[in-house]
Amino acid sequence: MAPRRYNDVVTEVSTRLAHGAPLDAAALLGFFGRRAVPGIEQVDGGRYRRSMRLAGGPAVIELRPGGGRFEARMWLARDDDRAEAVARCRAMLDLDADPAAIVAALGDDPVVGGLVRATPGLRLAGHADAHELAIRAVLGQQVSLAAAATLAGRLVAAYGEPLERPLGSVTHVFPSAAALAAADPDALAMPRSRARALLGLATALAERRLVLAPGIDPAAAQRRLLELNGIGPWTAAYVAMRGLADRDAFPAADLGIRRALERLGRGGDPRSATALAERWRPFRAYAAQHLWATLV
């Protein structure tokens, strides 16, 4: 069956996404809100909206927490996209995590134990599309969250797919890898080295020399990412952590992690952070999430 255009939407779905307790929904919405890209994401009035590209075509989802679950509304281009949309939402919100297991593993740690015990409902903020996240990770190299969101918003405006039925300020779908691979590097408002890295990544994704999707081995994906020009350990670990739901990924070179560790009286350089994080296996990504939360 051929994919439908978003303006041909025939299905609006409402469903409830259950999860175990505790879950810090406010922290999740805040995390997404601080990184929201204009045109494809919106956090407003306790709701998170975003577009995504599903097997049947573009879609928009809206998530609102309450009553021990997330209320999800979905506007789909094809009826049978529902299962894929639900799976992506559950992964994005980390709804299948086991908070008790995480507290048991990290709660007695001298560095992050107090943070974990104080906020046991903090979840690993995932992403709706690993390809999009990888592109955004390259844009975010060595710039602030706000600057990365601005850069991504420019890509959306220039190369994204407009929605003929926008929802709030969600007006586009993030550019496909193929669309970005065909972009003129001179037209990208970023340093040439970063533009080359972005276009090289987009080309590898478009040609399926690199596949980032559920079921892909995160360690193998990190190795493949590191083979691309301009992709370093931080980017590879960040993509594995948020895009591939690798609960043991750890971006040791992350500036936020460095600052958080230094505030806690520990060495924050990549070597020191890596050594500290060995104690946090197999939940190093949750330790990273707790460290980031100290900076908010």
Describe the protein's architecture and organization:
The strands form two sheets. Strands 1-5-4-3-2 form a five-stranded antiparallel β-sheet, with helices on one face. The mean pLDDT is about 95. Helix content is about 45%, strand content about 15%. The protein is globular and about 50 Å long. It is an alpha+beta fold. It has a domain at about 5-95: TATA-Binding Protein (2-Layer Sandwich).
Keywords:
296 residues, alpha+beta, TATA-Binding Protein, 13 helices, 7 strands, globular
Summed up:
This protein is an alpha+beta fold and 296 residues long. The chain has 13 helices and 7 strands.
Give the ordered list of helices and strands.
EHEEEEHHHHHEEHHHHHHH
Distance between the termini: 46 Å
Please identify the top-level CATH class of the domain at 6-97.
Alpha Beta
Structural class: alpha+beta
CATH architecture of the domain at 6-97: 2-Layer Sandwich
Largest sheet: 5 strands, antiparallel
Strand portion: 15-25%
CATH superfamily membership of the domain at 6-97? DNA-3-methyladenine glycosylase AlkA, N-terminal domain
Morphology: globular
Helix content: 40-55%
- Spans where pLDDT lies below 50 across 5 or more residues: none
What's the number of extended β-strand segments?
7
Report the CATH topology name of the domain at 6-97: TATA-Binding Protein
Mean pLDDT: 95
**What is the count of helical runs?**
13
Rounded radius of gyration (Å): 19 Å
Sequence of strands across the biggest β-sheet: 1-5-4-3-2
Oligomer: single chain
